[in-house]
Amino acid sequence: MKFSAFVLAAAGIVAAAPGTQLVQRNYSPLTPRSSRSRYNSSPIKRLSTEAVETLEKTSGVKNVDYSSNWAGAVKIGTGYNHVTGTITVPEVSGSSGAAASAWVGIDGDTCQTAILQTGISFYADGTFDAWYEWIPDYAYSFSGFSVSVGDQIKMTVDASSKTKGVATLQNLTTGKTVTHTFTSTPSSLCETNAEWIVEAFEENGSQVTLADFGTVVFTGAAASGSSGSTTPAGADIIDISPNSGRTIEASASVSGSTVTVKYVG
Description:
By secondary structure, this protein is mainly beta. Helix content is 4%, strand content 49%.
């Protein structure tokens, strides 16, 4: 995701300054914070075959793929135009600048030229961003969308065509829903990937240190399109190894319509 503030005239939404205070439920409402530097989400950065072989030897785990920036599940197929999933906002910790994002999206793996995505980014300093993006454009913050630790957030992307779509976030705890309609997009989707991801994104050209997010669980995870409906079952499972296969920083698993991503450290 690339974060910047702007006025969403086409959608009739005014973007708030990214970053809003993340607090426990029943505390004061979340308040906007000063704007951040631009952030960017990247297509998956898979590790080399040599690095994967090293990880398989040291971990004893096979049938898992590895990348330096994504952890989660990627379903590879054709005609995906709808992806959804619900997470519970985690409490995070870590060093200064540490962060992570949880999102659902279309494309970005076997199709690296576009991603339609929406999600929540959370930071070790106790702030968050609720955003939407169509790569390679920047991601932009939803306004008026409060989030607290423990809230249930449903994330959905719908592509009405390969160049148009809608991103929706629903706070099932507060009842608030925000939506952005993409009418002018910088790239065309391939509609070959559906994903549920926790990401170590980039800030000013460098990948952030992954915050300790505990466990993020995508429930009710589903995708659909011209080939019918599906769950993450049978998807490619992706773990994060940020150092060319020396260690695993976040691991993922899939069970039916649930994708679980755990911080390993």
